[in-house]
Design brief:
CATH superfamily: Spore Coat Polysaccharide Biosynthesis Protein SpsA, Chain A
Shape: globular
CATH topology: Spore Coat Polysaccharide Biosynthesis Protein SpsA, Chain A
Number of helices: 9
Mean pLDDT: 94
Low-confidence stretches: none
Distance between the termini: 28 Å
Helix content: 25-40%
Largest sheet: 7 strands, mixed
Strand content: 5-15%
Amino acid sequence: MYKGKKVIVVLPAYNAELTLERTYNEIPMDLVDEVILCDDASSDNTSKLAAQIGIKHVIVHQKNKGYGGNQKSLYNKSLELGGDIVIMLHPDYQYTPKLIPAMVNIIGDELYPVVLGSRILGKGALKGGMPLYKYFANRFLTFSQNLLINYKLSEYHTGYRAFSREVLTNISFNTNSDDFVFDNEMLSQIVYAGFDIAEVTCPTKYFEEASSINFARSSKYGLGVLRVSVGHFFQRIGLANLAMYKKPK
């Protein structure tokens, strides 16, 4: 625990057998109380390996629910287990677990209720091997989102995120998409609900075993991001009444 707050790391996994153990071994277990892995119908031995290396809470989807569906299972389980600080870490070793203490400190000391590990602050993205088309798409989408959402972040597309319990219980994340755009819907909900967001510089690694979506899926994701941002714009100026922004019952 950190100052009496229960810390949970959640791992959204899909075919992560080759990188899971390396990621897990770097999680600071002296600070983390629980680790939860959700295996989204992998075709490899991700769930078996998770149990072998000591992950006590392993959720297995019999059918693939998508990246957003995976996160829904993880956040609901975290709340069920009494998590006060919940960190999402991809088990593909693209993001370093060594930033977990910094993220926990920021939320645990009540400086910010949300922390993002940004690949764009500094030169982490390109240095780590992010493809140029993804980098420029990231910059264009982030610029557009900052204008439409009326917030300022270096990027909205990182998969390294930490949340306080208050945030997770006050946004309707279960109404969001089961696809990749879930991440942006969640950030839109967080900003609309009035929660502040911190960012920390995060080095990243792009390599063969790390998960990545192809150009077609990236294009679909980009269009989804713009849809969410435009919806947020109309919601905040009072010309829309979207269910995703309603507080959960």
